[in-house]
Amino acid sequence: MKNLTVCQEYTLCLLNKVKKNNGNLYEGKYPGCIALAAIFELFLSEKIALDDKQKVIIKNPIDSDVEYLNVIYADLSNEKPKTLKKWMEHYLAGYSNKPIKRIVESVIDSLDKKDCLNLEIKNGFLKDKILFNTNMSDVNHIIEKLRAELLESGTMMAETVILASLMHQSGILVDYFSKHEVDQLKTRIDEIKKSDNWATTSLVKQVVDELDTVLIITVIAGIV
After folding, report:
1. Half-sphere exposure of 108 toward its Cβ, with a 13 Å CA cutoff?
2. Which of 15, 27, 64, 76 is the most buried (most CB within 10 A)?
3. How far apart are CA 9 and CA 157, in angstroms?
4. From the centroid of its chain, how far is CA 156?
5. Contact status, residue 85 vs residue 206, Cβ threshold 8 Å
6. For residues 48 and 203, what is the distance between their CA atoms, to the nearest angstrom?
7. Rounded CA gap, 224 and 219, in Å?
8. Do residues 60 and 77 touch, judged by C-beta distance below 8 A?
9. pTM of the model
10. Which CATH topology does 6-220 take?
11. Is the dihedral of CA 184, 9, 26, 128 positive or negative?
């Protein structure tokens, strides 16, 4: 199967739900979750880190052919250090949604290049619509991998916890799992947040907690 990042996996599952782009993809909590997933990838690859004031700083140069990572890395490099919360405000609460659109479109383009979806433009009376025809075998593989790792005992990867948290907080987990499974997933995520024995727990906790901030900012900005 294709080797997808946590940001690509989340976005593909999201696009499978959204199906068509009539503005909804760039509103509410969705774009913030996509941006946060990409930032998490930069943390895991040690391109960025948190200083003693919990502000995001550049740690290592980036050498990547993944465009959406380059886009966010450039943003982080060109601005003064900010907390994750401030970066979410930067992307979601401003008057212009150009920065977040650039990130989202770059992630979609990366999925298109991997043949995880194809884009179809439908001519409309006032506005064209973009249909996201997702590759269901890729979507099903993501969901089954998530189910196997989170609902069964054993070591969980940081990416798995973040993916499940993103899907839960943005309301799409229920599109793929039963209510009973969702409850089990939420319990497992809570266990991870309380654990002190996992090497990447502190980073995962911060990213998961930041998802709540994303929801608050979208309400304040009036775009939910």
Report:
1. 24
2. 15
3. 14
4. 18
5. no
6. 12
7. 6
8. no
9. 0.86
10. yeast vps74-n-term truncation variant fold (1.10.3630)
11. negative
The closest of 53, 90, 32, 9 to 211, measured between CA atoms, is: 32
pLDDT tens digit sequence for 11-41: 999 999 887 555 577 767 888 889 888 998 9
Q: Each residue of 100-117: pLDDT tens digit?
A: 888 999 999 999 999 999
Q: What's the CA gap between 167 and 10, in Å, rounded?
A: 7
Q: Which amino acid is at 145?
A: K
Q: How far is CA 95 from CA 1, 222, 223, in A?
A: 40, 11, 11
Q: Where are the domains of the chain?
A: 6-220
pLDDT in tens, 35-71: 888 998 998 888 998 888 888 999 999 988 899 999 9
CB 210 within 8 A of CB 84: yes
